[in-house]
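So, can you check?
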Amino acid sequence: MKRVLFVCVENSNRSQMAEAFARHHGGQSIEACSAGSRPSGTINPKAVRLMAELGISLEGQRSKSLNEIDGRFDVVVTMGCGDSCPWIPTPRREDWALPDPRSLGDDGYRAIRDQIGVRVRQLLDSLQ
């Protein structure tokens, strides 16, 4: 099983969606986690609603700190958080410079959601 960690600042939008996509598409072959460098403590209701449009639930996920994450990861993906994302040892690191969609309208938010979905599928394909 491959372990993947998605990191953004608040762990309420981008990294939560990426974790959900990875769990949904990766099945039993992927353990997906997400965390934030300064977590908000909540998942954006817009993320919950717009992922549900795709039939993907964020139920069971919560906004958490990097301090709560243990173990080694095969891949760490930072989500455009720059210097706010600390270095996490991993054999593979990617930075997806995606804007935070929290203040976007539904169409803009969906565009970021869909970009994340495409990138997660590409990442999963590369891990097979």
